[in-house]
Design goal:
Layout lengths: L1 H12 L9 H4 L6 E8 L9 E3 L2 H10 L2 E7 L10 H4 L9 E6 L4 E9 L10 E9 L10 H20 L8 H10 L20 H20 L22
Parallel strand pairs: 1-6
Antiparallel strand pairs: 1-2, 3-4, 4-5, 5-6
Helix pairs in contact: 5-6, 5-7, 6-7
């Protein structure tokens, strides 16, 4: 979702003048995705929704319906007894979504991940299905860079301290320490998902996103690639100001 918000959102804000970003084939966030489908509601009453089969078609469909921005939001209510920091370790249980805004009523989009063909070429086993509902009451986050940086730094420090408390996690503490240094690095480069942001994103945004990607990778590995974590820190890293 972050890659769609960062790349697709920028394309929409620029008036969709250039070809849509090739997220499905050119972004590492989609490297294990085999299929993508979405039903885009029609702007006309009683008309059937449009079914699209790629993120690029979806972005074009949003643009044609008056959408001018796409933002990542992290305050979606979830059901069930688990607190958000635990629920987020399960597939399809996070509190994040995409908010499409513009010349029509805002729309909230979530993406459901399901395992499709386990023997798919290049390990593209995931099938994604995007669905939406009206987004009244939601708005794009307006977090300043300084506030976001302080939040990420605090989350990384807390995660490092947490990892140092357990022998089985102590080796991960160095990951968090490295991530903290990226917040002040003049040439920040994360080990994973370096293409999450557009190539010409500003330095402060790249500094903010780089450590979050390292922590996300730790989260993914410890939790067994969308499995459940035996020990989760209560603070979530959410990069809410990666807007161009």
């Amino acid at each position: 979702m972050a890659a769609l918000a960062a790349n697709g959102g920028r394309w929409l804000r620029n008036g969709a003048k250039n070809p849509a970003p090739k997220v499905s084939t050119g972004n590492s966030s989609f490297q294990y995705v085999g299929s993508f489908t979405a039903e885009v509601p029609s702007r006309r009453f009683l008309k059937r929704p449009l079914t699209v089969t790629s993120p690029e078609e979806w972005l074009f469909a949003l643009h044609s319906r008056g959408v001018t921005d796409l933002s990542l939001i992290t305050n979606i209510a979830i059901g069930g007894p688990l607190p958000p920091h635990v629920a987020s370790t399960f597939s399809n249980s996070g509190t994040w979504a995409l908010l499409a805004t513009g010349n029509a009523a805002p729309t909230v989009w979530t993406i459901n991940w399901e395992v499709g063909d386990r023997n798919a070429p290049e390990s593209r086993i995931w099938s994604l299905a995007a669905s939406s509902w009206r987004g009244e009451g939601y708005e794009a986050p307006r977090v300043g860079m300084a506030e976001a940086r302080d939040g990420v730094r605090a989350a990384l420090t807390e995660s490092r301290i947490f990892a140092e408390r357990f022998d089985e996690l102590r080796s991960w503490a160095s990951w968090f320490m490295t991530a903290e240094t990226l917040l002040d690095d003049a040439t920040p480069s994360a080990q994973y998902h370096r293409d999450l942001l557009p190539r010409d994103a500003s330095l402060d945004r790249r500094q903010l996103a780089a450590p979050a990607r390292i922590r996300a990778r730790w989260h993914e590995l410890v939790h067994g690639a969308r499995g459940r974590s035996p020990c989760s820190s209560k603070r979530l890293v959410t990069v809410r100001s990666c807007r161009r």
